[in-house]
UniProtKB/TrEMBL annotation:
Gene3D superfamilies: Aconitase, domain 3. Binds 1 [4Fe-4S] cluster per subunit. This is 3-isopropylmalate dehydratase large subunit. Belongs to the aconitase/IPM isomerase family. LeuC type 1 subfamily. Its cofactor is [4Fe-4S] cluster. One of its GO terms (molecular function) is 3-isopropylmalate dehydratase activity. Pathway: Amino-acid biosynthesis; L-leucine biosynthesis; L-leucine from 3-methyl-2-oxobutanoate: step 2/4. It comes from Halomonas kalidii. [4Fe-4S] cluster binds at C353, C414, C417. Residues 8-464 form the Aconitase/3-isopropylmalate dehydratase large subunit alpha/beta/alpha domain.
């Protein structure tokens, strides 16, 4: 018998029952909750007179609707101006209190984007099944956890039963081999993968990311990659356990205690695909060939290297592709064959569950140090993913680097990743954004999103247009060493 993939192992370890038609019931170890997709779930419990099955399996924090300025946050929930946003956040607080679920509220230092908070707390552990009413739950797969987004009715079901109806996915392996060039990051890897396989390339699959370039990434980088598996169509992104995984988790509040640690680690070590495991599909990328990426269109697959240009729709063989490109260029206000480095920007957003962790902020700060945001940029903002990331960044002096350069240093939340709070793009504005989605209107009605890495976003803020961060990096490193 062939060996098992990591996904196969996680699946079979959580399988409660499987029917002949493939419908299965799996056990859920951890549910993360935020204010957008939980209200009806709690309401459903209430109406049915049910209680959560396992309180300690749940952890909640508000993120999508929270304001990100100190002034608004000083008032707590009352600082939320939008009435719908306020109701959602208040309802999460009330529900967690009423049902006894642990929550990190708006001004708790541990509050933040749910996908930053879970791993940071050690609430996401190898071998777990992790769900959340949020598509970017794929992020947690970086820890060899089977993690994916679910809908609100499923949130209720998991609260009530700790189980979920599921269907087994197929196995895909994306191998990224070799060394990344200087200035090329995890974000560029995942954008390049999506550029290659497309936004439907992973549909129906659990993608395991493997290869030496993935092994070389920190946990922050691995989370960035898995975060965007859903943008490649796969609900699940996974990376096998190694020393990097284990070292990241040591001592985290929800991680196993010192007495249980060795046994847990011994167990976790099995959470890798067997050497002879068979994948339904394998895609290989050469890390050395990946450039810093910039999206030019209205789908994450509409992406190219920074040295490239906006494609010419007329040059596309497929008519549907052609029409899609025409529409995207019209919305984005870009011309065919325009150089990527000629795209001028109005705003810069460094944040989101893709790129708001400490390493992301360090990379951006390294580029921004001693520089000034271009006058033509109306707003450049840095939004840490959690209160603890913010604290760490401040301890390292990163906030001062950003503020001196002219960036706004904000409070944690989803912020300008999506237009659900006060941070939005205006119509027609171009934004260099470290987030994961560039759909029409995603960051505000008529807003134009360009997905990039934190270093590329910082470099764009300083130049006022996209620049190849590799040219800056070369000159910077010699300055720093002097
Ligand atoms: C609001 C939430 C349900 C949504 C998601 O599922 O991903 C959001 O986080 C997003 O990024 O679009
Ligand atoms: S940061 Fe963006 S992508 Fe992530 S959960 Fe929030 S809205 Fe969704």
């Amino acid at each position: 018998m062939a060996g098992q993939t990591l996904y196969d192992k996680l699946w079979s370890q959580h399988l409660v029952k499987e029917r002949d038609d493939g419908t299965a019931l799996i056990y859920i170890d951890r549910q993360l909750l935020h204010e957008v997709t939980s209200p009806q779930a709690f309401e459903g419990l209430r109406l049915a007179g049910r209680k959560p099955w396992r309180l300690d399996a749940n952890l909640a924090t508000p993120d999508h609707n929270v304001p990100t300025t100190v002034i608004e946050r000083a008032e707590g929930n009352a600082g939320i101006k939008d009435p719908v946003s306020l109701i959602q956040v208040q309802t999460l607080d009330d529900n967690c209190e009423a049902f006894g679920i642990e929550e990190f509220r708006i001004n708790d230092a541990r509050q933040g984007i749910v996908h930053v908070v879970g791993p940071e707390q050690g609430a996401t552990l190898p071998g777990m099944t992790v769900v959340c009413g949020d598509s970017h739950t794929a992020t947690h797969g970086a820890f060899a956890a089977l993690a994916h987004g679910i809908g609100t009715s499923e949130v209720e079901h998991v609260l009530a039963t700790q189980c979920l109806l599921a269907q087994k996915m197929k196995n895909m392996q994306v191998r990224v081999e070799g060394k990344l060039g200087t200035g090329v990051t995890a974000k560029d890897i995942v954008l390049a993968i999506i550029g290659r396989i497309g936004t439907a390339g992973g549909t129906g699959y659990a993608i395991e990311f493997a290869g030496s370039a993935i092994r070389d990434l920190s946990m922050e980088g691995r989370m960035t990659v898995c975060n965007m598996a859903i943008e490649a169509g796969a609900r699940v992104g996974l990376i096998g356990v190694d020393d990097t995984t284990i070292e990241y988790l040591r001592g985290r509040p929800f991680a196993p205690s010192a007495e249980q640690w060795d046994a847990a680690v011994a167990d976790w070590r099995h959470l890798v695909s067997d050497d002879d495991a068979v994948f339904d599909k394998v895609v290989t990328l050469d890390a050395a060939a990946i450039e810093p990426q910039v999206s030019w269109g209205t789908s994450p697959e509409m992406v190219t290297g920074v040295s490239g240009e906006v494609p010419d729709p007329a040059a596309q063989a497929d008519e549907t592709v052609q029409r899609g490109y025409v529409r995207a260029l019209e919305y984005m206000g870009l011309a065919p064959k325009q150089k990527i480095t000629d795209i001028r920007l109005d705003k810069v957003f460094i944040g989101s569950c893709t790129n708001s962790r400490i390493e992301d902020l360090r990379e951006a700060a390294r580029v921004a140090r001693g520089k000034k945001v271009a006058d033509s940029i109306k707003l450049a903002m840095v939004v840490p993913g959690s209160g603890l990331v913010k604290r760490q960044a401040e301890a390292e002096g990163l906030d001062r680097i950003f503020v001196e350069a002219g960036f706004e240093w904000r409070e944690p939340g989803c912020s300008m990743c999506l237009a659900m709070n006060a941070d939005k793009l205006g119509a027609g504005e171009h934004c260099a954004s470290t987030s994961n989605r560039n759909f029409e209107g995603r960051q505000g009605y008529g807003g134009r999103t360009h997905l990039v890495s934190p270093a590329m976003a910082a470099a764009a803020a300083i130049a006022g247009h996209f620049v190849d961060v590799r040219s800056i990096d070369d000159s910077q490193s010699s300055v720093q060493e002097a």
